[in-house]
Design goal:
Elements (H helix, E strand, L loop, with lengths): L11 H34 L4 H5 L11 E2 L1 E2 L17 E5 L6 E5 L5 E4 L6 E2 L5 E8 L2 E8 L5 E3 L4 E2 L13 E9 L5 E6 L7 E5 L4 E4 L5 E5 L5 E7 L6 E7 L5 E6 L14 E4 L5 E6 L5 E6 L6 E7 L8 E3 L2 E7 L7 E5 L11 E2 L5 E6 L1 H6 L1 E2 L14 H27 L1
Parallel strand pairs: 1-28, 2-26, 10-14
Antiparallel strand pairs: 3-4, 3-27, 4-5, 6-7, 7-8, 8-9, 11-12, 12-13, 13-14, 15-16, 16-17, 17-18, 19-20, 20-21, 21-22, 23-24, 24-25
Helix pairs in contact: 1-4
């Protein structure tokens, strides 16, 4: 049987209109779905604590380096022994309550409980903290790789050390001074007077090695010797004496620093730190303003290098290779701690942007994190106020756009009637 089809009523134009209608309907569904997913993601990401928890949760995120941005991470969960490698610690004034937040390379944050500013080992796997106990301070070192903890009760002088027969070592109020380059030893400040006001702690054994000598202990040289600095003479024209001591051994001879020019106003240095190569860095006020950093040889006291920069260092100095990394107060809204590596020509660049609500006073880094470089993040170190609130701003625009689209659709339906 043959069937004939009648195409006389076929209307190509109406068929095209139907297809266009289906096409537009599909586009509306896709656009609406994308809008809903974006809005939902923004709402979830703005929930309290989500930003502090998300970093490091997903596989493949960086382990080495440091985050370019520190959000409002106050109230992050307490640091666990399985946290892994840390990148930096933020000292948060927190309305006078002094809290500390540690972040890893991906930006995940933890709260660090400590009576004094914590200290990260160069590789970021060890963190030294203190606990106040009556009039004594208890030291605690946590290994964030294997979970091991060394506490004050386990620390004793090594057998044969000159101070082994003396009283139990008691930590100074702010005892954490400097790590060795390989993280195997920690220089700590002790209570009391000479000859043993400081000691070197062997992290693996928990044993102390006394460091006798005159002056304040500053840091450890690559060969394990401790550098001390003593300031003598009148305040407006002091002499700085530097000496090295082998832990557990006698104090070495002192050498006077020989600056190329007199110390700037008010006539004395403003601070000092040890460089990774073993030089002593001392800073004072430059004659034309700003801060002048001068490098001195520990062996003969000669000045070897000078760099001047327009900043006021307020915290411990970190190092990115041979570049000092200094903390100062930013000039943007909120006046957060700003970390700046100092080049040979005095150029500065910001390393980390801190949320304007954090009340940060210092940011200190693990040395390896500085060497590895930043984990790139949206907006980088740009600390303009709106960069911290781009998600709620974008959410508001999306909601307004959605309402506008619904209103326009309603207007078209009314006009068709």
């Amino acid at each position: 049987m043959k069937i004939d089809y009648d195409h006389s009523n076929s209307d190509p134009e109406s068929t095209s209109v139907r297809f266009r209608g289906c096409d537009m309907g599909m586009r509306r569904v896709l656009i609406g779905g994308a809008w809903l997913v974006t809005v939902s993601a923004l709402v979830v990401s703005m929930a309290p604590g989500v930003g502090a928890h998300l970093g490091g949760v997903w596989p493949g995120l960086p382990v080495h380096g440091y985050p370019q941005r520190v959000g409002f991470v106050r109230g992050a969960p307490d640091l666990t022994s399985s946290a892994g490698r840390l990148a930096l610690v933020v000292e948060d004034n927190n309305f006078g309550n002094a809290t500390y937040e540690a972040l890893n390379a991906a930006g995940r944050a933890w709260t660090v409980r400590s009576a004094t500013p914590p200290s990260l080992s160069p590789d970021g796997l060890l963190i030294a903290t203190t606990v106040g106990r009556d009039d004594d301070t208890v030291l605690r070192i946590r290994d964030l790789g294997d979970g091991r903890t060394i506490t004050q009760d386990e620390i004793r002088y090594a057998a044969g050390d000159p101070a082994a027969d003396g009283p139990r070592p008691r930590l100074a109020f702010d005892p954490l001074l400097a790590w060795s380059a390989d993280g195997s030893a920690l220089l700590i400040q002790l209570r009391g007077r000479r000859p043993t006001p400081a000691a070197v702690l062997d992290v693996a054994t928990g044993q102390l090695h006394s460091v006798p000598g005159r002056g304040a202990p500053l840091g450890l040289l690559p060969d394990g010797r401790v550098v001390r600095l003593a300031v003598i003479g009148p305040r407006d024209a002091p002499t700085l004496l530097v000496a090295t001591t082998t832990p557990g051994g006698p104090a070495g001879p002192a050498t006077a620093l020989r600056p190329d020019e007199p110390w700037g106003d008010p006539g004395h240095p403003l601070g000092w730190a040890m460089a990774p190569d073993g030089d002593l860095v001392v800073w004072d006020q430059a004659p034309d303003g700003g801060t002048r950093l001068r490098w001195f040889s520990v062996s003969d006291g000669s000045q070897t290098r000078t760099v001047t920069a327009d900043l006021d260092p307020i915290c411990a100095v970190g190092w990115r290779g041979d570049q000092p990394v200094l903390s100062t107060k930013s000039r943007s809204y909120g006046h957060q701690a700003e970390t700046l590596p100092l080049g040979d020509d005095g150029d500065l660049e910001s390393l980390v942007a801190v949320h304007h609500r954090m009340q940060s006073s210092c940011v200190t880094f693990a040395d390896d994190a500085l060497e590895a470089g930043p984990t790139r993040m949206l907006w980088g170190t740009w600390d303009a106020l709106w960069t911290w609130y781009w998600r709620p701003l974008l959410l508001g625009l999306l909601l307004l756009g959605g309402l506008g689209w619904l209103w326009s659709r309603r207007g078209r339906k009314v006009s068709r009637r």
